[in-house]
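=== RUN LOG ===
request id: a7f3
mode: sequence -> structure
chains: 1
length: 168
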Amino acid sequence: CLYPSYDRCLLSLSRGGADATVTREFDVTTKSFVKGGFELPEAKGSAVWIDRDTVYVQTDFGPGTMTASGYPRIVKEWRRGTPLGEAKVVFEGQMSDISVNASVAKQKGYPDQHMIRRGVTFYTAEFFLKDPASGKFEKVDLPADAGPGLVRDLLTITLRSDWKVGGA
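=== RESULT ===
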């Protein structure tokens, strides 16, 4: 749901619990789907809020946009009121990846943290943080099996194997 008001949510609806979902914007106040709101057709993928009028979306955009595993490999920034086809590409993974997805950590009193996870294999990934100055996603130098998290203005890291830096 949209922070901090939580009055709008992006609901992912699936048939029988399948991986493929339809995503629709829901107004919590009126308890109804938003007419002309964000809506994605059924596909493996999702959307996350950037702000009230913008989302990151990863879905089936057509031929060549899904990984060999059948999950999204492209993240786009989509503005309210514009066709999905006009959404701007912000990141592309490889066809051989498992999947690519974006997240945004929002916490009162701290700047939003935007992260992209590129699932290289089922157990390994690369992570990219958005540089507020350049607006570009920069790779975070982490072990491939590490699990990062965002808390306030900090990056937390869960290690699953030894992390060697500078020979130590």
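=== NOTES ===
The chain has a mean pLDDT of 95.
DSSP finds no helices and 14 strands in the chain.
=== END ===
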